[in-house]
Amino acid sequence: MFFFRRSMPQPRFALGLLLGLVVAFMILLQERPILGLSGLGTVAIIAAGLVEANHSRIWEAYRQQYKKRSKRDQSVWTRPSEAYYRMNVIVLWPLVAILGVWCLWLAYTMG
């Protein structure tokens, strides 16, 4: 029983939760800047870390999902491109993590 590997369920609410937290901390940033910056920095670092840790799983899931789409939903703009995806993983998400560290540093220097 301990050696059986069960398939992991796909996250269904992760994007909504991420956007909800970002909006909540942006609103909180207006009233309490230190708390808002701390929350935004933490959310950015966690999101970037999760994407970096699961980047191959995300890529495979997107490729499989694209194959299941109907032909009218497939276009040049939504076609999976390994080069764009690698650029996203190598450049964009580390920049999000750096932005999170910067938000935490700003919150620290304000307090």
Q: What are its keywords?
A:
4 helices, 111 residues, single chain, mainly alpha
C-alpha end-to-end distance: 51 Å
Main β-sheet description: none
Tally the helices.
Answer: 4
Question: Approximately what portion of the residues adopt beta-strand conformation?
Answer: under 5%
Content-based structural category: mainly alpha
* Percentage of residues assigned to helices: over 70%
Order of SSEs, N→C? HHHH
Average of pLDDT = 88
State the low-pLDDT regions, or none: none
Radius of gyration: 18 Å
- Kindly state the number of beta strands: 0
- What best-fitting shape do the alpha-carbon axes yield? elongated
Structural write-up:
The chain has 111 residues and is mostly helical. It has a domain at 33-69 and 79-110. The chain has 4 helices and no strands. It is elongated and about 50 Å long.
What's the topology here?
Layout: H1 14-31, H2 33-53, H3 55-68, H4 82-110
Helix pairs in contact: 1-2, 2-4
Task: Please give a quick description of this structure.
By secondary structure, the protein is an all-alpha fold. The protein has four helices and no strands. It has a domain at 33-69 and 79-110.
